[in-house]
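MODEL INPUT / OUTPUT PAIR
PAIR INDEX: 1
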Amino acid sequence: MLLLSLTDEKTQAEKEAAEEARKSGEKKAIAAKKIQLELEAARKVEEEKARGIAEEARKAEEEARKAKEARKAEEAREAKEEARKAKEALRIQAEEEEKARKMAKIVEAERLAAEKTAGIGSSATHARFKAKRLARIEDVANARKQPQDPEKEKLVAAKYAALSPEKRAFSILYDLGMIESTPDPDDPEYDPTYDEEFCPENSAIPQ
């Protein structure tokens, strides 16, 4: 009976040891699984951070590319505008030079015509008329010059502002040489030198 009892105790102890071993194995497996899950979660977090960093880098690179393209486009626009302004300045300069050349021809034609008709009529009256005519041509040439002196422009503007609309229109056209004032034949200073010519106020431009 004693031997049977010892065998039963041994068997029971073995069962208890086996159960403890099983429980310990399960705990270790659970712990290992937990560690594995934690490592997997940490890996996912790191991957997500890496993706976020990569996305930020991609966005920054895209923004830099867009800024560079915008800067190039702006520089190209500015260069185009500068070229247009330079071209416009050259065009205006060429027009002004052409106007000056034509006016110089008109002045020279007037001078030659005046010299050609020297001695006709009263020499004193004709000389005064010639001086007035040349002064008139010079005044018109100066009025057409651009750009004008700012101070002179203020004086001219003030002169026109003091006139009525009708007189202002006439004065502007007259100052620019677009119309002429018909001389009075009864004026003691009247010069009849060009009375036999048609439209004496018009001068041919030498070619």
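PAIR INDEX: 2
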Amino acid sequence: MIAVSLIAAALAAQSAEPAEPGAMVLAQAQDRCMATYAVRLTKTSATDEGIYAEAVSGCKDLNGQLIAAIAREYSPAQAAELTAAMEAQAKPNFLKLLQRIRADRLQRAGN
């Protein structure tokens, strides 16, 4: 009887703890974080490099959580491949995003 109570209490405590977000949710949050910096800072005179550096710095905690989630959810080889691909694509994709944001603003201003 006591063992059942202890197990039930342990299970209740586990279910009361908030679940850690998965890699997919964190990847989406990371994208939104970076996009927020892109939209906000393209309204300033900051350079693309400066905007990227600011976004990376501001989203650093999310990126760390994302890397940790990938390590938890994938095999070491897959995790290494995914993180390497993310790192290689991060800056070029961000710079393209900045171009799209500026082009969209110009188009909207012309209409």
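PAIR 2 NOTE: Residues 21-110 form one domain.
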